[in-house]
Amino acid sequence: MPQTVSQYNAERAFAINFQESRLKKAAQLISSLRAGAMLDIGCSTGTWALYWKNLGWTVTGVDVNPSAVDAAVKNGVTARCCDLNAAPLPFSDATFDLIFAGEVIEHIVDTDFFLKELTRCVKPGGHVLLTTPNLASLENRLRLLLGKYPRWLDYRLTDCGHVRGYTLGALKNQLDAQGLRVRRCLGNWVPFLPQSWMDDVRFPWLAPTGTWLPGLSMDLIVLAQKQPA
Fold first, then answer.
1. 130: CB partners within 8 A, 6+ apart
2. Which of 133, 154, 187, 217 has the highest CB neighbour count under 10 A?
3. Residues 6 or more apart in contact with residue 114 via CB below 8 angstroms
């Protein structure tokens, strides 16, 4: 029987690497905001949430993986289990000043519902910070020219579990339709050579290329703000 997106994600707890330019740039954007109540969607074992908790944020995490949620709680993070492919977020309206969803939206089937839930749970004037692989990265554009499938899309859900691919324009349009006005758009790094040959951890000098050319980067980093009613 084929895996569902939920089954795929429930089997894995994702580690994070603070040396990634994606996370460094996301951290810079968060640091530009006043500390308040944060929701970390896809919190895994709580490493990212705990980092911001120690910097003065009140952080709550959600994850589809019950084992990861248990680990996050043991690490000192308030966390709950939630499958956003099957249920709404278990929070009241206008609860959070910031919602962070790093590498999540590409796993969601109904992304309109997902973004509506983010909009519902963030306060007016609050922010949503998303990161997601870029369907139109330089590497993927070259792959399509050669007749190859774009990286990180997995129609069988047997590898990465990505069922949605976003370009910068498509993500901006969908956020705007939900009342989330885009404030900053960044990329992590531009793959002038295939990612199997180079990455921004081994070659940190690549990070500025994602800031200069976000539409060609491997990952998109978008900060949006909820508009008042």
1. 101, 102, 104, 105, 171, 175, 220, 221, 222, 224
2. 217
3. 84, 104, 105, 108
Question: pLDDT above 70 covers what percent of the chain?
Answer: 90
Amino acid at 1: M
- Return the pLDDT at 6: 40
Query: What is the tally of helices (H) and strands (E) in the chain?
Result: 8, 7
HSE of 38 in the Cβ direction (CA atoms, 13 Å)? 28
Q: Quick one: pLDDT band at residue 3, thresholds 50, 70, 90? A: very low
Q: How many CB atoms lie within 10 A of CB 70?
A: 15
CATH topology of domain 5-226: Rossmann fold (3.40.50)
**143's tokens:** 């792959």
pTM, two decimal places: 0.90
